[in-house]
Write a structure and sequence with these properties.
The complex is a heterodimer of chains A (about 350) and B (about 325). Chain A is an alpha+beta fold and about 350 residues long. Chain A is built from 9 helices and 20 strands. Classes of the chains: A alpha+beta (about 350), B mainly alpha (about 325).
């Protein structure tokens, strides 16, 4: 197992710069998820670590050894592709044994290693089948088996469960986590699905436009987003963002609507060009007037079974709130809305960077 | 699950079967006629109405491979008795085998050599065109080649001139460099001719093989060369088979260049068979037997590769 260090990685595709100064250290045994939209550079970063993509400049170290100029075969890294990439003309057994044949392992050792990995993944009964006869989940298990069988220094996964249906995805997510805990392999996992990222990662790396936006534990990324992009990318439903004016004792939302805030939370903010970010679960709704509550009415309702998403107007902004099922009867209902001040986030209206209290 | 068919569908199915049967009859009749004629006695080949039921004989094949002359007088019974079976068949037809004056060996008609030439030239040129074409196609498919589109167009453009146009310059060049009437000359010619086709077809097949297969092999510890042989080649087998059949048929059937570029040593079967039509009285059974033997290798080759071919033909029609 290994520690992976990326230093000042740049990558150009022609005139287009895909990676801009990527600096990242992945600790031994850590599960790091790279999260971002398609085209943000997360897959390119992963492929650069694997050696499937060259970098324009910068260094990649695996266990202290510079590998950016080494061939993929010499890096001792395993890769799981979104398409699984099982060799169609080989059986499951041959697929899993394929990396072992590259290192010239003898047949009995090979057989033992393949059987062991197949047992861990629960695919022993499939060893004689061809990949075309497997279900999506089994293909994915075989792909992981092929990656793990030679005990690589690190396991890289590029949206490994993105091609599966929702139910299977959830199940495989749990399996990947279980496997990681059992094997403690250094893992880098690329996804655009923030739920996968939150549930799997020791640390999440949020990427956008070839830049690292934030690197942190799932809690940090969720509760202390570094900027507006991270705030809106992580979390479902999406965090509410509203332009607000900062006044003495509160925030104004335009059209005369304002919400009181403790002075300690907003004293550090500039007077204007501020964006408020607030997650739907931090928007409080009430049928009764109360302290810090503003009267409003609902504009939309999305029942989701376990909870409901209620849209309410607050001055010039529409906020989405999370409510108990049945809390709201429908559109146009009178309600009082308030904000959980402790869970409010503020961002610079121009740069999008988080405005945090320095204290 | 039982399939439920409407009356209309059943009618359509019967119609389709009928159409296939009619098409088969139209296409197979000439082949049958060639095959049948090559087993007929000479006097049955041109009867009117045509002879359909006859006693098959191997006489046309015996004649095909030997040089013969007319018998002036009936052959002596003891000579006839001593002759091997094929020579008896020739005597039966009123002809005798021309024998070497010194060694008394029967003289060959040259068909056997020409048939071998056809096999040598076709097999080697097909192998060369397909292997070089596959490697070239792989390069174009997987690497960034500067001016890729222009190169591919250039490769294809070699097929745009009708071969006849370049025949005379080719003939002069071949004579100048001593490639005229050599196996190697014909092999180079057919390889060059088939290569552009092989590159284009194989590029289509290789483009369809996901790069991830090779990338998986690369991270699994293999070199690109190993990945090519262990992963790409087995996956491209269907394409290779289809391309090989087409290249083989082209080389096997080629007539114009073979006629012009070869005369004796390296001449292939296609220019030889029609040359028999004009020499003296045409023996159609001999010509038919030559044509029949000429059909066999392509039929065998295609039959052996039929599964690959079927997949190759429907290639691109189904999404994997």
């Amino acid at each position: 197992m290994a520690r992976i260090e990326l230093t000042d990685i740049q990558k150009h595709f022609g005139a287009f710069q895909v990676l801009k100064n990527v600096n990242l250290t992945i600790e031994d045994g850590e599960f790091v998820v790279m999260l971002g939209q398609s085209g943000c550079g997360k897959t390119t970063t992963l492929r650069a670590i694997a050696g499937l993509e060259t970098v324009s400049s910068g260094t990649i170290r695996i266990d202290g050894r510079e590998v950016q100029d080494l061939k993929a075969a010499d890096r001792d890294i395993a890769f799981v592709f979104q398409s699984f990439s099982l060799y169609p003309h080989m059986t499951v057994y041959e697929n899993i044994a394929f990396p072992l044949r590259a290192v010239g392992m003898n047949q009995s050792e090979r057989e033992a290693a393949v059987r062991e990995v197949a047992r861990v993944l629960g695919i022993e009964r499939l060893l004689n089948r061809k990949p075309s006869a497997l279900s999506g989940g089994d293909m994915q298990r075989v792909a992981i088996g092929r990656a793990l069988v030679r005990r690589p220094k690190a396991l890289l996964m590029d949206e490994p469960i993105g091609a599966l249906d929702a139910k299977l995805r959830e199940q495989m997510r749990a399996e990947i986590k279980r496997l990681h805990i059992a094997r403690a392999s250094t893992s880098v996992y690329v996804t655009h699905d923030q739920i996968e990222a939150m549930s799997l990662a020791d640390r999440i790396v949020v990427m956008h436009g070839g830049l690292l936006q934030q690197v942190g534990t799932p809690e940090e990324v969720y509760n202390r987003p570094a900027n507006l992009f991270v705030a809106q990318f992580v979390g479902s439903p999406v965090m509410n963002v509203a332009d607000v004016g900062v006044e003495n004792g509160g925030l104004s939302f335009g059209a005369g609507a304002g919400v009181a805030m403790p002075a300690g939370l907003i004293a550090h903010l500039p007077k204007n060009a501020v964006k408020l970010g607030i997650r739907p679960e931090a928007v409080r709704l009430s049928h009764e007037p109360g302290e810090g509550m503003v009267e409003t009415e609902t504009t939309n309702l999305e029942p989701l079974g376990s909870h409901e998403i209620v849209d309410v107007r607050l001055g010039g902004a529409t906020l989405r709130a999370r409510a108990e099922p049945g809390f709201v009867r429908g559109q146009g209902q009178r309600l009082w809305v308030g904000l959980d001040a402790e869970r409010a986030h503020f961002f610079d209206g121009e740069t999008g960077m988080a405005l945090r209290r320095t204290a | 699950m039982a399939e439920i068919k409407t009356k209309g569908e059943m009618l359509f199915n019967r119609g389709a079967i009928l159409a296939v049967v009619v098409a088969l009859i139209i296409m197979l009749t000439p082949i049958y006629w060639i095959a049948a004629t090559s087993f007929k006695a000479r006097n049955l080949a041109t009867t009117i109405p045509p002879t359909v039921v006859f006693e098959p004989t191997l006489a046309p094949f015996a004649k095909l491979f030997t040089k013969r002359s007319q018998l002036r007088e009936p052959v002596a019974p003891e000579v006839y008795e001593a002759a091997p079976w094929w020579e008896k068949l020739i005597y039966d037809g009123g002809e005798q085998v021309v024998r070497n004056k010194k060694t008394n060996e029967p003289t060959s008609s040259g068909f056997g050599n020409r048939y071998m030439n056809s096999l040598i030239v076709s097999i080697i040129s097909t192998f060369l065109a397909v292997s070089m074409g596959t490697l070239t196609a792989y390069g174009f498919s997987r690497f960034r080649v500067p001016g890729e589109q222009d190169w591919l167009f250039f490769i294809l453009s070699t097929r745009m001139l009708p071969p006849v146009v370049v025949a005379i310059p080719m003939f002069l060049m071949y004579r100048a460099v001593g490639l005229h009437d050599t196996h190697i000359g014909l092999i180079i010619l057919y390889t060059a001719f088939n290569l552009s086709f092989a590159v284009w077809i194989m590029k289509g097949f290789i483009d369809e093989i996901p790069r991830e297969y090779e990338e998986a092999a690369l991270v699994d510890g293999y070199t690109r060369m190993e990945a090519f042989f262990k992963i790409v080649l087995p996956e491209a087998l269907t394409g290779i088979a289809a391309t090989a059949v087409f290249c083989f048929i082209t080389a096997w059937n080629e007539y114009a260049f073979a006629l012009m570029m070869t005369s004796k040593n390296a001449q292939t079967a296609p220019p030889y068979i029609p040359s028999q039509v004009g020499s003296g009285l045409s023996d159609w059974t001999v010509i038919a037997s030559g044509a029949f033997l000429f059909l066999v290798p392509v039929a065998i080759f295609t039959f052996l590769l039929r599964n690959h071919l079927l997949r190759g033909m429907s290639f691109g029609a189904i999404r994997k």
